[in-house]
Amino acid sequence: MKVLIVYFSRFGNTRLAAEVMAEAASSNGDVQVQAFAELTPEVLRAAELGLFGTPTHRMNLPEELRPLLAGLPKGCLRGTAVAAFDTSYKMNGFLTRMTAAKKLDRKLRRLGGKRVARPETFIVSGREGPLAEGELARARAWAAALVRELAPVPLS
C-alpha cells in the first residue's frame, strides 16, 4: 500500500506526529512524508492512503495553509482514502468541535478524498508544545491501525 503523510507544522509538533506515523505505517506499506508546501498533484495521485495533518491555530486552519489547499486541483484525491489529524492544546466544552482537523477533513473530501477515519486531535502541552505525554504513542497507534485496516490481504 502506498501511504502519503502530509503535514504543515509551525512549531514542529505536527511534523513529529507525522514522522512517528510514518514509522508505524512503514511495516505495512510504502510510506512518503511530505510537507504541504512541497506537495504536487502527481504525489497525491500516487497515494492509496493519505494522512493529512496541521496544527489548530485560533480554532481554524493556519493562514499559511489555506492558499496551499486552495491551489490543489479539483478531484486530485479522487479514489484516495484520506484521514485528517491536527495538533492542538486541550480545549474544553463546545470549543472541542473547532479543530483544524475537522476543517481539513471537509477540504480533503471536497477534493475527492474518501474519509476512512474521523478527524483526530493530538494534544500539545501549552500553545506551542511539545506534544503531551502519550500523544506520540497514540499517533503511532492511530496510523498503524488505519494502514492495517486498509492494507490488502496478501495472497497465500
Report what the structure shows.
With 156 residues, this protein is an alpha/beta fold. It has a single domain, classed as 3-Layer(aba) Sandwich (Rossmann fold). The protein has 5 helices and 6 strands; from the N terminus they run βαβαβαβαββα. The protein is globular.
Keyphrases for this structure?
alpha/beta; Rossmann fold; 6-stranded parallel β-sheet; 22% strand
Derived from helix and strand composition plus strand pairing, the structural class reads alpha/beta
At the fourth CATH level, what is the homologous superfamily?
Answer: Flavodoxin domain
Mean pLDDT: 92
Which regions contain 5 or more consecutive residues with pLDDT less than 50? none
CATH topological fold name: Rossmann fold
Reported CATH architecture: 3-Layer(aba) Sandwich
What count of structural domains? 1
Fraction of residues in helices? 25-40%
Number of strands: 6
Proportion of beta-strand residues: 15-25%
Distance between the termini: 17 Å
Sheet with the most strands, sense and barrel status: 6 strands, parallel
Sequence-ordered SSE layout with sheet pairings:
Elements: E1 2-7, H1 13-25, E2 30-35, H2 41-46, E3 49-55, H3 65-70, E4 81-89, H4 100-110, E5 114-115, E6 120-124, H5 135-150
Parallel strand pairs: 1-2, 1-3, 3-4, 4-5, 4-6
Helix pairs in contact: 1-5
